[in-house]
Specification:
By secondary structure, this protein is an alpha/beta fold. It has helices at about 10-20, 65-70, 115-120, 140-150, 170-180, 195-205; strands at about 1-5, 30-35, 55-60, 80, 105-110, 125-130, 155-165, 185-190. About 30% of the residues lie in helices and about 20% in strands. Strands 1-2-3-4-5-6-7-8 form an eight-stranded parallel beta sheet, with no helix packed on it. The longest helix is centred in the first third of the chain and has 13 residues, at about 10-20.
């Protein structure tokens, strides 16, 4: 279900929810909304949806409704959350430590430290995709990398997305070398990447 080019109406959201409640054997769900809609708290459309998903890809904003839905899905192994953290401080996005017991593959392109901590800490994540943003401060890099290494098993595959204007990329690369010694696969996706960014990577990896 892809609605990335248009904003969804209330009637369409109710229709999507009605449809989801009718497909009790669904194993994979791809629900993509527009960027503007991903800034809203629309996770309620998954309330009551009980199909045993193995894979979920969605750009729904990460609100408390989405968190409660994830807690009801013990079979998910692959999860891509493309939405931003939209929950308010009084009702934050938090997960029970017993939620998502089978989660192995996680992609959080817009993940802040709070979202990363909620999804990674104590879980057996083996493959992760994350994006470092140009507005991130240097200490946020270290914080994110520390959280990435807080899973219950070693991380083996890491895909890093970053822009060329990301400040201090050498801090990111050094953190990868420090926090993830068991890493087997590293994928670096640079947007508008310059030679200096690639050079920083190989300088760190050479030690």
């Amino acid at each position: 279900l892809e609605f990335m080019a248009n904003s969804v109406t209330s009637n369409l959201l109710r229709l999507i929810r009605h449809t989801l409640l009718s497909v009790s054997s669904l194993e994979e769900l791809n629900l993509q909304l527009s960027f503007q809609d991903s800034l809203s708290n629309l996770g309620w459309i998954l309330t009551g949806f009980t199909a045993p998903l193995d894979k979920l890809i969605t750009s729904l904003g990460c609100d408390v409704f989405l968190a409660r839905f994830l807690e009801s899905q013990p079979h998910i192994e692959t999860l891509l959350l493309g939405g931003l953290m939209t929950s308010n401080p009084a009702n934050p996005f938090t997960l029970s430590p017993y939620a998502l017991p089978r989660l192995k593959n996680l992609s959080i392109p817009h993940g802040c430290t709070l979202l990363l901590r909620a999804l990674i800490t104590g879980r057996a994540i083996q493959a992760l995709t994350i994006r470092f943003h140009s507005e991130d401060e240097e200490d946020q890099y270290a914080s994110k990398l520390s959280i990435i290494s807080s899973g219950s098993c070693p991380l083996y595959c890491l895909a890093v997305e970053m822009w060329d204007d990301t400040a201090h990329p050498e801090v990111i690369f050094q953190g990868i070398a420090t926090y993830l010694p068991n890493l087997k696969v590293l994928s670096l996706r640079g947007f508008e990447t310059s030679y200096s960014l690639v050079s920083d990577l190989f300088t760190v990896l050479s030690y």
